[in-house]
Amino acid sequence: MLSRILFYSIDKAIKRYRQFAQANIDRAGFSITIDQWLVLNVIQEKPDSTQMEIAERTFKDQASIARIIHLLIQQKLVAVENHPTDRRRSQMRVTAEGNRILEDVMPTILNNRAVALRGISEEEIAQLQYLLEKIFTNCSNSKSHETQLPNQDDLSLQMGATAPDAANTATERA
After folding, report:
1. If we measure between CA atoms, which residue out of 98, 64, 60, 48 comes closest to residue 78?
2. What's the farthest any 2 CA atoms get from each other in the chain?
3. Which domains does the chain have, with CATH numbers?
4. pLDDT tens series, the chain, 174 aa
5. 84's torsion region: left (phi>0), alpha (psi -120 to 50) or beta?
6. Coil, strand or helix: which one is 115?
């Protein structure tokens, strides 16, 4: 049953939150998407970010980031300037209008978070954040998934088979 799969529940919660949050942003009259808001924030925090760095920080592919940046430039929320020290590069900056949007949408963003986290204690939030970071680290560490995967016999033992059953299973596979 899907509802018993942890990663299904995580994905379901994230998708529902994004739908909920975007609907509230739209209802408040802002013509910006959550992804555009994220990219604007990254550019505001670090104007010399490359598209690749923005993609890594927002967990988006580079093609999506290029489209988002193009839209932000068209909407005059981001401006592109020559890089001050490297003429081969350009530097993005959030415009005054972009800063105004970031500031104006913030109460809606904070309200969305408050509604989503209603009834969840600070300790539970901290624990969830810790566990999600742990999952992220486990999946990011390329060595861990290569060296720590149990073999089929170990899986049989963990799932309740006795050692002879596991040996018979291994013999049957051969």
Report:
1. 98
2. 71
3. 2-140 (1.10.10.10), 145-174 (no CATH)
4. 888 899 999 999 999 999 999 999 999 999 999 999 999 999 999 988 888 999 999 999 999 999 999 999 999 999 998 877 877 777 899 999 999 999 999 999 999 999 999 999 999 999 999 999 999 999 998 665 555 555 555 544 444 444 444 444 444 443
5. alpha
6. helix
Residue type, 104: D
Give the orientation angle of helix 34-45 with respect to helix 96-116, to 10 degrees: 120
**Is 0.85 surpassed by the pTM of this model?**
no
Q: Amino acid letter at 145?
A: H
Q: Which residues contact 47 (CB under 8 A, 6 or more apart)?
A: 91, 92, 93, 94
Compute the distance between CA of residue 172 and CA of residue 174 in angstroms, rounded to an integer.
5
Could you give the C-alpha distances from 157 to 19, 144, 147, 149, 173, in angstroms and in order?
A: 42, 21, 19, 14, 16
